[in-house]
Amino acid sequence: MRIIDISKEKDFLNKLFDRSKLEMDEVNKKVDKIIWDVKQNGDKALKEYTKEYDGLMLENLLVSKEEMEEAIKNTSRDLLEDLTKAKENIMKFHKKQLRNSYSLYEEEDIILSQLIRPLERVGIYIPGGKAAYPSTVLMNAIPAKIAGVKEIVMITPPCPDGSIKPSILAAASIAGVDKIYKVGGAQGIAALAFGTESIPKVDKITGPGNIYVAMAKKKVSGYVGIDMIAGPSEILIIADKWANPKYIAADLISQAEHDEMAAAILVTDWEPMAYKVMEEIEVQLQTIDRKEIVKKSLENYGAIIVTSCMAESMDVVNAIGPEHLEILTRDPFEVYKGVKNAGAIFLGEYSPEAVGDYFAGPNHTLPTSSTSRFSSPLGVDDFIKKTSLIYYSKTALERSKNSIVRIAEEEGLTGHANSIRVRFGEVEL
Amino acid sequence: MRIIDISKEKDFLNKLFDRSKLEMDEVNKKVDKIIWDVKQNGDKALKEYTKEYDGLMLENLLVSKEEMEEAIKNTSRDLLEDLTKAKENIMKFHKKQLRNSYSLYEEEDIILSQLIRPLERVGIYIPGGKAAYPSTVLMNAIPAKIAGVKEIVMITPPCPDGSIKPSILAAASIAGVDKIYKVGGAQGIAALAFGTESIPKVDKITGPGNIYVAMAKKKVSGYVGIDMIAGPSEILIIADKWANPKYIAADLISQAEHDEMAAAILVTDWEPMAYKVMEEIEVQLQTIDRKEIVKKSLENYGAIIVTSCMAESMDVVNAIGPEHLEILTRDPFEVYKGVKNAGAIFLGEYSPEAVGDYFAGPNHTLPTSSTSRFSSPLGVDDFIKKTSLIYYSKTALERSKNSIVRIAEEEGLTGHANSIRVRFGEVEL
């Protein structure tokens, strides 16, 4: 962790934004091959890649009822209750995002509607290994469920013994996932996009993954819908002299422990805070399981930016447009009004990021790498589709026909003009 | 135009969906070079490419006030009124899409909100030449305006004499576009994405374009937001024996005249309709300016599919998920309920596609190539961003702390757990 002078180190911002770019030739070719193979050979290809990458030959990809029951038995009652509480909070928040279709009835002989309907079938990718998080299951499946998606399919790579972490299966059961398949990586994404003998083709794929998964999602996008391609996670904390450096240090560390690419940034207009936080990080680091990851992440993408005033701090915030923004100042409810771009904003000293990651209700899938300028947290909107409906009566079309014909002719599209005229016997053949 | 048996010609659907895939190496390399050049050399690069591709050296890229006034003077009063009426209809329909931010106040000490705010600055691409359509200006700019976007920038390639089609400028004025620049192609997209001396960087780019434009949009996506990459346009008409073959022929032609890649498809359960429509097309073709384009398009991607009953027709509709769907049957209001996937549905014989293209109010930018399975017409949603807001009081965090800590520990993220504990003096250092 070091103090940087943003006016002199412009490169820091570029370095930050560039973390998420996928431009690796080798990964590119491998993923192309995997997708092609799965399209050609279906389940056979999936099983071979599972052997290669996950180290086991599976008979069945589908998780059985017995495995589900076993997993729930192996999850502590406390954790099941915690996940259920989290589910309720997530549902409450996301239900407010539901929208109805609407219709306009104009002049009694025109009907215009926007139909809002759920996607038919959705696929959720859940990473395995160290990044197998039950919270990810809840955050992806629940908005789909609320949208009314008819079938939610989940895929996740198995452990070498063929099992899946019990809390992942428990979360899937709590969230209402319909089917779970043991397959990960680019091969899993290809299976969801094109279907195989055992895995059904879906309409959209959401969920995080490693670089192979991200690349595969990018490649199948257009054949199926995808959510954002999330870059590495990031937090920005804006603090004044009233903030508690212990809390700041803890929250920066909690971000940095995700992976070595994660970015943890403090912006403060009170220079002594910079030193206090650096000291606190050293102390707290001792208590962290993933100490080595935290150290590397803070070295690479950690930064403390000292500004001359709050207004300057806000400029930094808005230039970065962070995924997570914590406001640890005396008046967070005033400060947040100046925030133009952020995925989620955490207000005040008892709203650490972890509250949002697991529990509060808003989604933890958020726009990274400054994309909060134009994109949004995952939500119910990501699992619906809209269709327009247009009905004109004969008299309605007659009233408007001259305007439509004139615009069509201005555009040089006589076929369009004729399609109106022909209905009133006005095409001269 | 020919009759195809969909059960035997499975390839037809694949051919249809594959029209939109951009996999051309040469275009790819050219676009990479152009984007790099514009990033390095700004306006200088823009002017050189404009010389190369549009055939003139420009002094100023910005369209002046005088040029705007001149353009409006050169547009007929009738057309100005038509475009204004269209604008009013588009506004009325899209205003219903506006949504408010919401907040949940839980147990008096938790606040959760979803803020909905407009994008700051948006760029709209409008093609030049034969595809310079004033309706495109309205359909892209008006939803942005309604969303509350602060600045709408439009770019479009100039004619060889340095002018822009008057009705394009008039439509921009009517729709409330803030600034217009004379630049097109991949260079224009690069300018909007990264900014140059004269063109400001935007947050999102929307609007149609040729393959260079589409490829450039795909490449800058992530640095800026983009709307869908639209494939060639398509119509599917579902007709029973009650339909008027003259209207069907006219509407198929109106789709086919867009370009040689456009697809016009009739699905009918009444075989004689197939022959009647083919005859009508031959007759009506004589009256069309773009006859050659229509012929080629119908040859390549035109098709009449004869089914044994309406239910089978509906299966074809849903397998294709067309951009435009016309229902020319005796009971369109019953039939549409069976439609799972479509961009826009036109009901009954006086609602030809052209009504929606220009005038009725719903957007004419619609999902193509079967992407209506998971994507939606352009609308106000495309010009807003959402941000989550989370406030927990000390007592609120205390009530939930055990749950949050337990989930964090299950995920192996002790830093997350500590960020909660540290606030209650529970981290042992």
TrEMBL record, chains A, B:
<protein>
    <recommendedName>
        <fullName>Histidinol dehydrogenase</fullName>
        <ecNumber>1.1.1.23</ecNumber>
    </recommendedName>
</protein>
<keyword id="KW-0479">Metal-binding</keyword>
<feature type="binding site">
    <location>
        <position position="258"/>
    </location>
    <ligand>
        <name>substrate</name>
    </ligand>
</feature>
<dbReference type="GO" id="GO:0005829">
    <property type="term" value="C:cytosol"/>
</dbReference>
<dbReference type="Pfam" id="PF00815">
    <property type="entry name" value="Histidinol_dh"/>
</dbReference>
<feature type="active site" description="Proton acceptor">
    <location>
        <position position="323"/>
    </location>
</feature>
<dbReference type="GO" id="GO:0000105">
    <property type="term" value="P:L-histidine biosynthetic process"/>
</dbReference>
<feature type="binding site">
    <location>
        <position position="416"/>
    </location>
    <ligand>
        <name>substrate</name>
    </ligand>
</feature>
<dbReference type="GO" id="GO:0051287">
    <property type="term" value="F:NAD binding"/>
</dbReference>
<dbReference type="GO" id="GO:0004399">
    <property type="term" value="F:histidinol dehydrogenase activity"/>
</dbReference>
<comment type="pathway">
    <text>Amino-acid biosynthesis; L-histidine biosynthesis; L-histidine from 5-phospho-alpha-D-ribose 1-diphosphate: step 9/9.</text>
</comment>
<feature type="binding site">
    <location>
        <position position="187"/>
    </location>
    <ligand>
        <name>NAD(+)</name>
    </ligand>
</feature>
<feature type="binding site">
    <location>
        <position position="210"/>
    </location>
    <ligand>
        <name>NAD(+)</name>
    </ligand>
</feature>
<comment type="function">
    <text>Catalyzes the sequential NAD-dependent oxidations of L-histidinol to L-histidinaldehyde and then to L-histidine.</text>
</comment>
<dbReference type="InterPro" id="IPR016161">
    <property type="entry name" value="Ald_DH/histidinol_DH"/>
</dbReference>
<feature type="binding site">
    <location>
        <position position="324"/>
    </location>
    <ligand>
        <name>substrate</name>
    </ligand>
</feature>
<feature type="binding site">
    <location>
        <position position="411"/>
    </location>
    <ligand>
        <name>substrate</name>
    </ligand>
</feature>
<feature type="binding site">
    <location>
        <position position="125"/>
    </location>
    <ligand>
        <name>NAD(+)</name>
    </ligand>
</feature>
<feature type="active site" description="Proton acceptor">
    <location>
        <position position="324"/>
    </location>
</feature>
<dbReference type="InterPro" id="IPR022695">
    <property type="entry name" value="Histidinol_DH_monofunct"/>
</dbReference>
<feature type="binding site">
    <location>
        <position position="255"/>
    </location>
    <ligand>
        <name>substrate</name>
    </ligand>
</feature>
<feature type="binding site">
    <location>
        <position position="233"/>
    </location>
    <ligand>
        <name>substrate</name>
    </ligand>
</feature>
<keyword id="KW-0560">Oxidoreductase</keyword>
<feature type="binding site">
    <location>
        <position position="416"/>
    </location>
    <ligand>
        <name>Zn(2+)</name>
    </ligand>
</feature>
<feature type="binding site">
    <location>
        <position position="357"/>
    </location>
    <ligand>
        <name>Zn(2+)</name>
    </ligand>
</feature>
<dbReference type="InterPro" id="IPR012131">
    <property type="entry name" value="Hstdl_DH"/>
</dbReference>
<feature type="binding site">
    <location>
        <position position="258"/>
    </location>
    <ligand>
        <name>Zn(2+)</name>
    </ligand>
</feature>
<dbReference type="InterPro" id="IPR001692">
    <property type="entry name" value="Histidinol_DH_CS"/>
</dbReference>
<feature type="binding site">
    <location>
        <position position="357"/>
    </location>
    <ligand>
        <name>substrate</name>
    </ligand>
</feature>
<keyword id="KW-0520">NAD</keyword>
<dbReference type="GO" id="GO:0008270">
    <property type="term" value="F:zinc ion binding"/>
</dbReference>
<keyword id="KW-0028">Amino-acid biosynthesis</keyword>
<feature type="binding site">
    <location>
        <position position="255"/>
    </location>
    <ligand>
        <name>Zn(2+)</name>
    </ligand>
</feature>
<keyword id="KW-0368">Histidine biosynthesis</keyword>
<keyword id="KW-0862">Zinc</keyword>
<comment type="similarity">
    <text>Belongs to the histidinol dehydrogenase family.</text>
</comment>
